Amino acid sequence: MYGVPRTRVLYDSLDREKASILAQLPTSHARLNSYLHRIGKADTDVCGCGVERETVSHFLLRCTRWNEQRCALAETVGPSLGSLSKMLGGKPETTEDTSELNERAWKPDVKIVRAVIAFAMKTGRLAPEG
């Protein structure tokens, strides 16, 4: 698998709907008000909860509208809840070992990524308007 981009392996393991959700979140091109407002599709960038801008971080970690759905996410993600990079298939923000060997051995935590996608799907927030 060395030489094959890790993200490709991750995306290839997902169906189209799940891959679409995963593609939206790390790029911040998700159907959240921060992005929709920027492209003129929403009147405000503030979340429907009224607390702050509806960013990916707010949606995944803090929005009170999704506390119930977030419980299942927290059970799977555990102490990585809050590490957006790791939750979205990237490297953790902090790591003890930055050696070249560790860099080559690193791979996304598919279980965590799938839990994030399941959370997003349960909220229905990223579903296209129909």
Automatic annotation (TrEMBL):
UniProt KW Hydrolase keyword: yes
Entry's Gene Ontology molecular function annotations: endonuclease activity
Top-rank lineage group of the source organism: Eukaryota
Sorted UniProt keywords: Endonuclease, Hydrolase, Nuclease
Protein name: Endonuclease/exonuclease/phosphatase
Species: Penicillium cf. viridicatum
